[in-house]
Amino acid sequence: MSVREMVVLGTASQVPTRHRNHNGYLLLFDGRGILFDPGEGTQRQMIHAEVSASMITRICITHFHGDHCLGLAGMIQRISLDGVPHEVPVHYPASGQAYFDRLRRASIFKDVSRIAPQPIREAGTLHSDDVLTLTTAKLSHTVESWGYRIDEPDGRTMLPEALAEAGVRGRAIGELVRQGEIRIDDRVVTLDDVSVHRKGQSVAFVMDTRVCDAAVQLAEGVDLLVCESTYLSDASTEARERGHMTAADAARTARDAGARRLLLTHFSQRYPRVEAFLQEARRIHDDCVAARDGARVPVPRRK
């Protein structure tokens, strides 16, 4: 069975606390593992979450504030130490190339990793294959920051009763999927006769930004929106000045984008509990979850 879930490795903004590590999020999606914003301590958090460096197939950095990137040095060295055999592309703002280079070679180690730097210079598609498409858009923070979106291609759901009635079975099913139609005896059976359209699942990752159009565009119609909610609404002025969102801002972004589930995270150290974030957000958007370190949040399945 395919696994599609966000493994939460850290939820703290700026500094870790007793109960929150620096940021870190690993999206597991049908054998792919996209690591977002590995902050300090990500290696250790992965051990607690029972995920390994070999599961990482891609790394996405939104920006180069320390709580979103200081774990990159350790993760690259761990990928090398564990002998991860596949190439691991790393996406990051091109304006931060000097910071990437420092993190890439932060200390002495025998580097056998297959890290592939992919600096971002413009919005658009970063990667596309038969499993997922990765796109990016520029957000509104105090430094250059990019959000990400993952889309599964649309597909078809086969209808067993319709297949049986049409006499399509075994290898003929695969042939029908590939060709779009197949002849069974004296009848031509089309894909539309025995299946229905299935919209692909999608995930958006919006971190460290004020409310902006790009955040809504990235989150449009997604099944899971991972969104920063650094403050509560009583600090909304401070949030805007520092380039962040409140829980209410995140909820309005999810509502306006038509996102199904909102995962709140990136909490300021001034808030030891997250219940108030949920209360504030749920007044605007029904399906809200407050991230906690070590949690696994499924990508909601489509009916």
Supply the key terms.
26% helix; 303 residues; 10 helices; 7-stranded mixed β-sheet; single chain
Shape type: globular
Structural class label: alpha/beta
Distance between the terminal alpha carbons, to the nearest Å? 17 Å
Q: Helix-strand pattern, N to C? A: EEEHEHEHEEEEEHHEEHEEHEHHEHEE
Give the proportion of residues in helices. Answer: 25-40%
Radius of gyration: 21 Å
CATH architecture of the largest domain: 4-Layer Sandwich
- Compute the average pLDDT: 95
Query: If helices are DSSP runs of H or I spanning 4 or more residues, what is the number of helices?
Result: 10
The portion of residues forming beta strands comes to 25-35%
Q: Using the coordinates shown, work out and report the CATH topology of the largest domain.
A: Metallo-beta-lactamase, Chain A
Largest sheet: 7 strands, mixed
Low-confidence stretches: none
Number of domains: 2
CATH class designation of the largest domain: Alpha Beta
Q: Order of strands across the biggest sheet? A: 6-5-4-3-2-1-18
Question: What's the CATH superfamily of the largest domain, by name?
Answer: Ribonuclease Z/Hydroxyacylglutathione hydrolase-like
- The strand count comes to 18
